Automatic annotation (TrEMBL):
Name this protein carries in UniProt: ATP-binding cassette domain-containing protein
SUPFAM superfamilies (alphabetical): P-loop containing nucleoside triphosphate hydrolases
Superkingdom of origin: Bacteria
Keyword presence, Zinc-finger: no
Coiled coil: none
Keywords per UniProt: ATP-binding, Nucleotide-binding, Transport
PANTHER family: ATP-BINDING COMPONENT OF ABC TRANSPORTER-RELATED, METAL TRANSPORT SYSTEM ATP-BINDING PROTEIN TM_0124-RELATED
Amino acid sequence: MTIYAPIVCVSDLNVSINNNLLLNDVNLSVPAGIWLGVVGPNGGGKSTLIKALMGQVPYRGQIALDWPEQSARRIGYLPQIAVIEPSLPITVSDYLTMVCDTRPVWFRHKQKQAILNAMTRLQIETFNNKRLGTLSAGERQRVLLCAALINQPDILVLDEPLAGVDKEGHALILNVLSEFHQAGGSVIMVEHHWHVVEQYCQFVAVIDGQLVDYGPIEHVFGRLKPNVAPFELATSA
Ligand SMILES: Nc1ncnc2c1ncn2[C@@H]1O[C@H](COP(=O)(O)OP(=O)(O)OP(=O)(O)O)[C@@H](O)[C@H]1O
């Protein structure tokens, strides 16, 4: 994979929905190549931050992606887990092909090698004909992560990639993410599991209606540990 150096800079970010201020004056700058864990209590605004980064909620302030000139500027996104209607007539194969290519699905007779490689890596190569809405939560997370990775992004933005995933799936997903990160990719990941953040992330952002703390993990954890860490209050979905 080509190594690029995206840096995300968030300045004076405010998000309000229906006159409720969900995020107040968030400022942070994510260094290139960093695996950032976004943590905090339930309802603290972690997903709201991710949605603002992805342009899915209106916001005030600035969100800047600082890319090197030659960068392809690709972001892979795994949104917060959501129910997909079982009768939706889209198979895993259709979905991944659509993510990979903008031409209509019926134009293509062969799956791209990139799709097959990503499916194999996430152990979903037998899912081709399954409908998206019939997958278990853990299977769906692997398919959505596969979709996020297919176009060889420079940065992955993940909202609880381990939600609903069993232990084996955890290990698989974390291995795939580690490989991506070791190859130079940057990761911004909402995560409820303390031990996962501790083991994998170099930077942590603590969100509770605002940016409570931010920085290298050893600094943030050092500051939090004498008290109850806000993100210990959060529970997995
Ligand atoms: N579309 C919306 N309309 C109104 N309120 C919303 C909307 N989306 C989120 N909220 C509220 O904003 C707050 C932050 O929600 P958000 O999902 O960002 O928190 P979170 O930290 O990701 O929570 P969790 O850990 O439970 O997933 C919550 O109080 C939530 O109810």
